Amino acid sequence: MKIKAVRFAKLKVPLVTPFKTALREVSFIEDLVVLIDTECGQIGYGSAASTPVITGDTHQGMIAIIQQFIAPKLVGQEIENINQLTHIIQSTVVGNSSAKAALELAVYDLWGKLYQAPLYKLLGGGKSELKTDITISVDNIDKMLRDCQRAVEQGFDVLKIKIGNNLNQDIERVKAIHAGFAAKTQLRLDVNQGWNAKQTVFALQQLEKAGVVLELVEQPVKSSDIQGLKYITERVNTPIMADESAFSPKQVIQLLELGAVDIINIKLMKTGGLSRAIEIANITAQYQAECMIGCMLEGSIAVAGAAHLASAKAQQISKIDLDGPALGQYDPVQGGVEFSGPQICLSDAPGLGIESITGLELITNGVWPA
Ligand SMILES: C[C@H](N)C(=O)N[C@@H](CCC(=O)O)C(=O)O
Ligand SMILES: [Mg+2]
Asked: The Mandelate racemase/muconate lactonizing enzyme C-terminal domain covers which part of the protein (predicted)?
């Protein structure tokens, strides 16, 4: 099965409620979809979210880097040589992790189609049912409590609470949500780099004294502040997780060698796709550290790839934050992974299993070779 061309499209889905973090606020999931055509007429699907405040990637930038540098090296390659394909994708340019993720997803989808097997089985096999948490956007306390209530009614029993835009208000938000929902749910916090190290220790010690039990706190400080993460981890009981500080296998080794964090959040948009995500999961096992599989605000094509990986690497990946599709008003993708509230159900269709996509807007000059 030989690669013939790479095409691009856009896919936009409105959110149930605006997605607000310490870094940004958006009302739509907007994915760049990458379609890889083969000479035998198969199509591989991949997609990527543009999250410039975290990855630096934009849709225009992803299209340019793929068209000018990576697609010319992929066209003509055989899908059966999956390691050679991921090597080309990873090594042709530096950075550009979201563009690499979209391409890797599409070639892994085709690899599954070549061998007529679902991706999670080709990656080692696992369960077809997974469960995700859901994210509660940062807002005034009443709105956050209403969002938590709706999530519980939908069946979610793990809530990921976004905070980080005002230290004292954040402490009050967490206390209020803990009082209302700790009996029914497990609570994770995501500060999205909003605090500094001393503020984090202060906040977590206050919360610990008040009897607030948290499963983990994600990325409290700036992505570059590795010493800050270590300072916090040494002073609080609550487990600390790296997100924006952990893109590459090398960064993960540095974090774990230093004892800077307890847990790593793996996201395909940071690792550049599945191949490096697998490497990171294996590294965390070497350090007996836990890891989570997460997502950006992205739709069900890319999240399906992450779900296949989570199933196949369940021995390493113990926590799941794959709620992108649950945050959208509908899922435009038919076939493959089904997202229903907290439940994620993998199908045994080949690759990612995608049959069709509603509302896909093909980019007219977005094809290589032209
Ligand atoms: C959507 C997911 N649960 C999440 O919170 N992801 C990111 C933020 C992504 C974004 O801004 O698109 C995270 O920080 O974990
Ligand atoms: Mg995060």
From this structure: 141-239
Q: What is the pTM of this model?
A: 0.97
The answer to whether the beta carbons of residues 145 and 173 sit under 8 Å apart is: no
ipTM metric: 0.99
366 vs 194, higher pLDDT: 194
Task: Indicate the domain borders of the chain.
Answer: 3-116+358-368, 121-345
**DSSP secondary structure code for residue 69 in this structure:** I
Q: Which fold has domain 121-345?
A: TIM Barrel (3.20.20)
Active site residue 131: no
233 close to 261: Cβ distance less than 8 angstroms: yes
DSSP 3-state of 137 = coil
Tokens of 252: 């993960």
- Give 208-228 pLDDT, tens digit per residue: 999 999 999 999 999 999 999
Distance, in Å, from the CA atom of 310 to the CA atom of 120, rounded to the nearest integer, reads 8
Rounded distance from Cα 75 to ligand 1 centre (Å) = 33
Whether CATH 3.30.390.10 fits 3-116+358-368: yes
Average pLDDT over the chain, rounded to an integer: 97
